[in-house]
């Protein structure tokens, strides 16, 4: 059978609407039908946007064969949501020189609805304030009113160009009687944060649902549904700019607070032992992205390793709450009393229109030396992904004794007495060894010395690293460095800092960081051994130079 094709060109264009008169919160469904063939983009619907909010057009094609003749029909379907009350013209459309006719639709106010026939479906919207400052939160509430059940429904979110829009909490479902009619109400709330100043319009969200027709004319209509569409009204707002006399970081809120906590040993703190300072910044009506950073000054004798800030946004009582947690590992390197300076975070009070400050008062902390020997192994390793925060004076320094304060005099004298006793004991041990060398050989007795010889201590240290035994490496390092610096040892970090170019201190810092990091970085033990070997060479040269200066003073 021969089939002729007659759809290469549009021969007729017609327009239909489901109704000509609607309420301002309802929609018109417009259908444009072309006899023939046409592309999806053949129709320009932009002129409709002057008076209506326009949905995305749907596009369909159908083909018929009658008595061997084939024809094609193309259909566009689009929903129109009126922007205001009045009479509006739906313009003519043209495809392949074929044009539809134009016609008028009437848009009535909501209160024009028949009082005898209650509205089955409608949507309302409201905001908590119409005048806000730039980046201040607006609470937007939308309510869907239902008299009958629906099968499926969806609600778009309100729209404000360039604004941050987030839903707050879960939908609430309750019943309410309005003008004698019981409605089921589904309520949803949004936080809208405008990002530009000026006068704007918040476009109302659109609710679409499938509703049973409840037709009883025939069994064939059982279970059929129709689509209903309702739109919340638009709302005008005024967004005020940042005041001209405001010179601080812009943080518009109703309330901003800053608090701190210390994790670890309570005061007094101990030299070389890390403690964690946690500072929490909380702001009402803001998102986490709006929170500023916090710059915390410290005394040069503190090593400070800040973690990556933890930022979060939560919802409480229809408000967004932004919270930033700033953790820093702090390692004091000297004993004494220190002052942590005051921390001030400026913010703009949107209720009073004034500048205020969230303040963390200055505080005093006490640092003491380790109880065992007055020295501390300074754990100066940054956590993973951190950079060390120091002042210009915090470069590695030669080891120094803790400052003598009135509260530390007793410990200072105790250290002097201990050192004197140690020197006397070493002198007696040397005399006994000398006497032994000149006396006849007797049966040998294996007595382990309290301090290993330097070379043996270094060999044991290397073996531990070669075997991957990083646990307890600090003890092995301390044993070796004590043998290397028998009269000058203060702490591992202080000793390794004497030759920073060897790189040994840097690797040891990372090793210590792993001990209190949740994401430890792998340590290259072979590279660590090379750095320690280089340090040993530099230290040996120093010791030889010191010995020559003592034996041959100038």
Would you write up a description of this structure?
The structure is a single chain. 18% of the residues lie in helices and 38% in strands. It is an alpha+beta fold and 554 residues long. A hairpin with a 2-residue loop joins strand 6 and strand 7 (69-82). The chain is elongated. Mean pLDDT is 79; it is low at 1-7, 373-416 and 434-450.
Topology:
Blueprint lengths: L3 E2 L6 E6 L3 E3 L4 E8 L16 E3 L3 E9 L2 E14 L3 E5 L3 E2 L2 E2 L3 E6 L12 E7 L3 E3 L4 E9 L5 E4 L8 E15 L2 E13 L4 E5 L3 E7 L12 E7 L3 E6 L11 E2 L2 E8 L5 E2 L4 E10 L17 E5 L3 E7 L2 E14 L3 E5 L2 E7 L4 E7 L2 E6 L40 H30 L15 H13 L6 H12 L7 H5 L7 H12 L9 H27 L3
Parallel strand pairs: 1-7, 3-11, 13-21, 22-30, 24-32
Antiparallel strand pairs: 2-4, 4-7, 5-7, 6-7, 8-11, 9-10, 12-14, 14-17, 15-19, 16-17, 18-21, 19-20, 23-25, 25-28, 26-28, 27-28, 29-32, 30-31
Helix pairs in contact: 2-3
The portion of residues assigned to helices is: 10-25%
Which descriptor suits the 3D outline? elongated
Largest sheet: 6 strands, mixed
Span of the ends, CA to CA? 123 Å
Mean pLDDT: 79
What's the Cα radius of gyration? Answer: 40 Å
Please state roughly what percent of the residues sit in beta strands, choosing from under 5%, 5-15%, 15-25%, 25-35%, 35-45% or over 45%.
Answer: 35-45%
Low-confidence stretches: 1-7, 373-416, 434-450
Structural class call reads: alpha+beta
Number of strands: 32
Assembly type of the chains comes to single chain
Annotation field: number of helices: 6
